Amino acid sequence: MKTICKFGISFLTPHRKIHAFGILLIIFISILFNMNGDYWSIQYCPWILVISLLLIGFIGITGFRINNISIGKIDMLFIVFTSYIILSIILNGKPFTDKIYVFIGYFLFFFIAQLSIDNKENLDLIWLGLILILFAQAIQGVLQYVGVISPANIFFTITGSFINPGPYGGFLAVGPPILIYYCNKYIQRKMFYYSLICIGLFILTAIVLSGSRAAWIASIVGTLFMAKNLWFQNMKPFALVNKKILTCIAIAFLSLFLFFLFQLKMDSSLGRIFIWKISLSIFKEHPLFGIGYEKFGVEYGKYQAAYFQSQQGSSEEVRLAGMNYFTFNEYLKILIEYGITGFMLFVVFIYGVIKLILTKNDTCEQLIVPLSVTITILIFAFFSYPFSTIPISLLFFLSISIISFYEKKQNQFLTYKLPINSLSKGFFCLVLVFMVYNVSMKLKAIRIWQHAQQNLLFREKQSWLDYKNIYSLLDNNGAFLFNYGAELSAGGYYKESCLILNKTEKFFNSSDLHIILGNNYKKLKNYHMAEKEFITAHYMVPNLFTPLSHLFELYKETGESKKATEMALKIYQLPIKVYSDKVKEIKTNALDYLNEAK
């Protein structure tokens, strides 16, 4: 028996709950491949996600009878923004970065999710399933904090399945608003109600322990929005209070809270301000159309190096600087990568969603939760990088998708009727099959890369052959290119390493990359280029001792005693940010040289 979905898709099966489980499965997969936070999990995660979405899309095309496709205002704005990004990637030239596949995955997820939200039961299934996922993450984080299990990143006490506490806290931050909604909904079902309370306390504990100030702020704002819609929307005492007084009180409390958070981790706060300072210098040079999709992490190090090389940096900025790949403000990142043009398209897209808050739709039962989740993530985006974290991005696009679905039920903007014929169906299937094949080949190449890297010492000849064979498939993967170049350098293939690493700079950049390049040129007796690369590595992160040590050794080898003495003195005077045996050795060598030079 066929049932008709209101937005124009007729299903061949009445078992719609499977679609909701599919959405939860995608979110779970994105977390599962973050589980260890190790190098290879990070490489596999985006591709597993994309191929899962492509397969679901293929099943959707072959399993659903499509009568027409309803495109609402939010859908149209999202399509326009996506089209701009794709155009930006094309105009930046080949080879395209592999990361474009992740954005294609989000695009598919946005529309696939709308197949799963045709009734309240499916929505409840999705949100309650998400609560269980959040609860599992909270348990994992608390157990990490008390030392029962090890965190994914040994430098932190709590990370859940994420690489550090920031995105972990941001992922959990959506929990309190959702839990408040369902606690209010099921308050009469005491056993279920108290279970939700216990889960909520666990999640709150994990958010606090994460130490993510951005997550605290985001969760508070999202929770207040939920509370306002559930309890305070129609309360007359609040309507009678002078709005100006309430505004002043809110601003005062917010200012005090932000000041407290600033003081709580002052170095971290100052570090982010410095990152924004360098980031703005990138925007100033590319104001209209930006530097291109996912180029911030590549370009930031260059601009930071140029800033310090111009002698503008203060001693405090030298101390705070690090090898950074995130803006810690997603809106600034959009401005930098897509320019004013892309930023305005994004603002219009988000405005199309947020304006629902100012209408009667914000009291619609189906919209309260997705709006709260969206607001929580948008607030988190002011101070962190949720759109660079796959699980949080999926939550964001899921929420927007739900909002778009119900917006279309209220006011349909455009309907395009896609006739059922072999040509249209075959075309979309062909595109998806082609993409599945490409992604499968990428996954296979990463698997070969992993084996080649791990067996290089035992099967050297075969490993080098494997690297060479998969190069054409992964020549736009910055992590692969860097690893390939580094292994070539370690194996003594210095010229080949230089070729690969110079290409790597288009997709990945770091002080380590320039140190390896410097060593390559040094081995090739190209001392001028070696000096240039070591200097670049130094100014990228001026508080590191390793680049200075390489410059010091280079000047000793080339007999430039004056420069060697200057470098030894610089090493001796440089404050230690992180103590280690290596730093101690570098300092000792520099001091010995200075004593001998007297």
Model description:
With 598 residues, the chain is an all-alpha fold. It folds into two domains: 418 residues, no CATH class; 154 residues, Tetratricopeptide repeat domain (Serine Threonine Protein Phosphatase 5, Tetratricopeptide repeat). Helices cover 71% and strands 2% of the residues. The strands form two sheets. The chain has a three-stranded antiparallel beta sheet with strand order 1-2-3. The protein starts with a strand and ends with a helix.
Strand content is under 5%
Q: Which regions are unreliable across 5 or more consecutive residues at pLDDT < 50?
A: 1-15
The helix fraction, in percent, is: over 70%
Shape: globular
Oligomer: single chain
Structural class: mainly alpha
- The value of Rg in angstroms is 27 Å
The CA-CA distance between the termini, in Å, is 94 Å
Query: On the 0-100 scale, what is the average pLDDT?
Result: 83
Our count of helices gives 26
Number of DSSP strand runs: 5
User: Largest sheet, described in full?
Assistant: 3 strands, antiparallel
Q: How are the strands of the biggest sheet laid out side by side?
A: 1-2-3
Write down the domain tally. Answer: 2
Characteristic terms for this protein:
71% helix, single chain, disordered N terminus, 5 strands, O-antigen ligase-related domain-containing protein, WaaL-like, three-stranded antiparallel sheet, 598 residues, mainly alpha, Serine Threonine Protein Phosphatase 5, Tetratricopeptide repeat, two-stranded antiparallel ribbon, 2 domains
